[in-house]
C-alpha cells in the first residue's frame, strides 16, 4: 500500500475498519475541530483559553462515554466497550489538533483505570453514570514532594469509627483534577504497615471538602493541585486496598501510557502537512526551498520516522488486544510505544522546525503548537529513563529464550478488551516470553538496510553474551540507558517489519525507515563506546557495530513526501 495512506487526512478520513457508531464519533470529532477552524485553534492556544467548549462537545455527543466504558458497565449498550484499536484512533485524532485536546482524554483514561479494575459495583456504576452525563475523570496519584513514588504517599486515610475514613493530604499535577467528578485517589491507611496500607478510593472534585489549590500549568489544560481536608470516604468509595491498590496504579499506567504514542503520531502528522506545504511554496534564491538537498533530507527523515512510528504502534495494538494471562508481550511493547515513539515524535517535529525556521515561531503556524506540545509526551506516565529501565527487564528473555505463540492477527474487530482490567499483580516481568525476533527480520533480508540492521541486532546479542554489563555497570544508569536504547531498536524494528508485511508496505519506504534505524543504532553504539565505564571488549564491539546505510530509495521516498504539499490545510 502507498505509505502516504497511513497518514491521517481529516478531509477524507473514513475509518472503514470500525463499526458505524465508532466511525460517526471519530468523524464528528474531526468535523468539530475543522468547523472551529485553525484561527480559533491557534488563538485559544496562545490565549491559554480553557477547552471547555471541547468538553461540552464531548459530553453532548457521548464521546468519552462510548469509547471509555467497558462492556460490563455499559448497561447493555452495544456501542460501549473498551476497544484499544478505536481508543488509539481517537488518541491520534485528538493529537492531530494539539496535545491540549488529547490531554483531558488521556487523563480520563487514567482516572477510570482503577475504577474499571475494581470489583466495587457501586463505584463502577457511579463512574459509568458520570461518563454518561458528560463528565471526565482524573488520576490522583502524584504528589508535590514525592512525584509518582507510590511508596511514599502523604495522602492518609484515618478510620472514622463508623466503618469509613477521613482522607487528608494533597495531590499535585493532576489532569482534570479541577473538574472531574470521578477522581481515583491513591493513598495509605493510617496505622497500617507494609503493603496492606495502600488504598485507592474515588473522590469528587465538586465535594466541599475537596479543595482546589490552583491550576499548575500556564496552558489551556486543567492540571490541578488539590487538597482533601477531612474528606469523607465511605466503604462504597474504596476501589482497592493492599497489594491490589499497588498493582492497580501500575496496571492503570500500563493501559494509559499506550495512548501517548498515538497522540504524538497525530501531532507530527499535522506538522508535516503544514511544513511541506509551506516549504514547497516558499521561494528562496529563485527556487522552491524544497530544491535544497538538506531540506529534502530533513523531510525524508521526518517522514520515514513518522511511518516507523505508525507501523510499530499499529502492530502493538494487536498485542494489547490479544493479551491474556499466558501472553503478556504487550508489557514490553507498551513502554516502547511510550519511550520510543514519543521521542521519535520529538525528532520529527524538530526536523520540520529546522526546515520551516522562523515560520515555526509565528502565531499563525501549527508547527509552533507542535513544537511546544511534543516535549511533554516523553515526560508523561514515566520519563524516558523510567521506561528504558523497565524495557531492560525483558531483554534476556526476548533475545535468548524465544517461545512459540499462535500468530497474532490484526485486531480492529468490535471486541471489548476486558483483560486489561484484570492484568493481575504487577510483577513477574522476567517470566514473560516472546516469539523469536529473527523471523520478522529473515522475511525482509532482501532489503539492504534491513539486512544491515539485522547484522547490528545479531552483534548486540553477541555483546550481551560475550561482554555483558559488569555488576558495576548494571548499577550505572548512564551506561544501562544507552544499552536500553540499543535493545529497544531491535524490538522496534521487529514490529515495524511485522506490520510492513501485514499491509504490504512499499519496500522503498521500508528501506528508508531502516536506513534511519541503522544510523540510530550506530549512534548509540558510539555513545556506548564513549561511556566512562565501558570495557575494552565493549568498546571494540561498539566500533564494529557502526554501519553506513546502503539505502538507494531516497529519491523515490522524496517524491512521496513532496506529493503531500498542498494536500491538507486546516480550514481557517
Automatic annotation (TrEMBL):
Keywords: FAD, Flavoprotein. It comes from Kibdelosporangium philippinense. The keyword Flavoprotein applies. InterPro entries: Acyl-CoA_Oxase/DH_mid-dom_sf, AcylCo_DH-like_C, AcylCo_DH/oxidase_C, AcylCoA_DH/oxidase_NM_dom_sf. This is Acyl-CoA/acyl-ACP dehydrogenase. Residues 246-393 form the Acyl-CoA dehydrogenase/oxidase C-terminal domain. Belongs to the acyl-CoA dehydrogenase family. It holds the Pfam family Acyl-CoA_dh_1.
Amino acid at each position: 500500500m502507498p505509505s502516504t495512506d497511513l497518514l491521517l487526512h481529516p478531509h477524507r478520513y473514513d475509518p472503514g475498519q470500525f463499526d458505524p457508531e465508532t466511525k460517526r464519533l471519530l468523524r464528528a470529532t474531526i468535523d468539530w475541530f475543522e468547523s472551529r477552524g485553525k484561527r480559533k485553534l491557534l488563538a485559544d492556544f496562545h490565549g491559554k483559553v480553557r477547552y471547555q467548549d471541547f468538553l461540552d462537545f464531548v459530553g453532548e455527543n457521548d464521546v468519552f462515554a462510548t469509547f471509555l466504558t467497558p462492556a460490563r458497565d455499559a448497561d447493555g449498550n452495544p456501542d460501549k466497550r473498551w476497544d484499544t484499536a478505536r481508543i488509539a484512533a481517537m488518541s491520534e485524532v485528538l493529537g492531530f489538533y494539539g496535545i491540549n485536546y488529547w490531554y483531558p482524554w488521556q487523563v480520563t483514561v487514567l482516572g477510570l483505570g482503577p475504577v474499571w479494575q475494581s470489583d466495587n459495583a457501586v463505584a463502577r456504576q457511579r463512574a459509568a453514570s458520570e461518563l454518561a452525563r458528560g463528565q471526565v475523570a482524573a488520576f490522583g496519584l502524584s504528589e508535590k514532594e514525592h512525584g509518582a513514588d507510590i511508596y511514599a504517599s502523604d495522602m492518609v486515610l484515618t478510620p472514622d469509627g463508623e466503618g469509613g475514613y477521613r482522607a487528608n493530604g494533597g495531590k499535585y499535577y493532576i489532569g482534570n483534577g479541577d473538574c472531574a467528578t470521578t477522581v481515583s485517589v491513591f493513598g495509605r491507611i493510617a496505622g497500617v504497615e507494609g503493603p496492606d496500607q495502600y488504598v485507592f478510593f474515588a473522590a469528587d472534585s465538586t465535594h466541599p471538602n475537596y479543595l482546589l489549590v490552583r491550576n499548575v500549568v500556564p496552558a489551556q489544560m486543567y492540571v490541578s493541585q488539590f487538597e482533601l481536608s477531612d474528606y469523607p470516604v465511605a466503604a462504597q468509595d474504596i476501589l482497592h486496598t493492599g497489594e491490589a491498590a499497588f498493582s492497580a496504579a501500575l496496571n492503570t499506567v500500563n493501559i494509559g501510557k499506550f495512548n501517548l504514542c498515538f497522540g504524538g503520531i497525530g501531532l507530527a502528522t499535522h506538522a508535516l502537512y503544514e511544513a511541506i506545504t509551506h516549504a514547497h511554496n516558499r521561494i528562496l534564491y529563485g527556487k522552491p526551498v524544497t530544491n535544497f538537498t538538506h531540506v529534502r533530507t530533513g523531510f525524508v527523515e521526518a517522514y520515514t520516522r513518522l511511518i516507523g512510528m505508525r507501523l510499530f504502534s499499529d502492530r502493538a495494538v494487536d498485542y494489547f488486544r490479544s493479551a491474556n494471562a499466558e501472553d503478556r508481550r504487550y508489557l514490553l511493547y507498551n513502554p516502547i510505544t511510550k519511550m520510543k515513539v514519543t521521542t521519535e515524535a520529538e525528532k520529527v517535529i524538530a526536523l520540520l522546525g529546522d526546515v520551516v525556521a522562523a515560520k515555526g515561531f509565528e502565531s499563525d503556524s501549527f508547527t509552533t503548537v507542535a513544537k511546544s506540545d511534543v516535549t511533554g509526551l516523553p515526560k508523561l506516565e514515566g520519563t524516558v529513563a523510567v521506561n528504558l529501565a523497565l524495557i531492560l527487564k525483558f531483554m534476556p528473555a526476548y533475545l535468548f529464550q524465544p517461545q512459540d505463540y499462535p500468530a497474532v492477527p490484526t485486531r480492529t474487530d468490535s471486541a471489548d478488551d476486558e483483560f486489561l482490567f484484570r492484568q493481575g499483580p504487577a510483577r513477574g516481568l522476567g517470566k514473560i516470553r516472546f516469539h523469536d525476533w529473527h523471523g520478522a527480520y529473515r522475511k525482509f533480508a532482501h532489503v539492504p538496510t534491513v539486512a544491515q540492521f539485522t547484522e547490528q541486532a545479531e552483534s548486540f546479542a553477541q555483546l550481551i553474551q560475550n561482554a555483558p554489563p559488569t555488576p558495576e555497570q548494571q548499577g550505572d544508569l548512564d551506561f544501562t540507558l544507552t544499552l536500553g536504547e540499543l535493545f529497544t531498536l531491535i524490538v522496534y524494528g521487529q514490529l515495524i517489519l511485522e506490520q510492513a508485511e501485514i499491509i504490504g508496505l512499499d519496500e522503498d519506504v521500508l528501506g528508508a525507515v531502516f536506513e534511519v534505524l541503522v544510523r540510530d543504532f550506530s549512534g548509540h553504539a558510539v555513545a556506548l563506546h564513549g561511556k566512562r565505564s565501558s570495557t575494552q571488549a565493549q568498546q571494540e564491539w561498539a566500533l564494529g557495530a557502526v554501519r553506513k546505510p546502503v539505502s538507494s530509495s531516497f529519491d523515490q521516498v522524496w517524491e512521496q513526501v513532496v506529493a503531500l504539499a498542498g494536500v491538507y490545510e486546516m480550514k481557517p
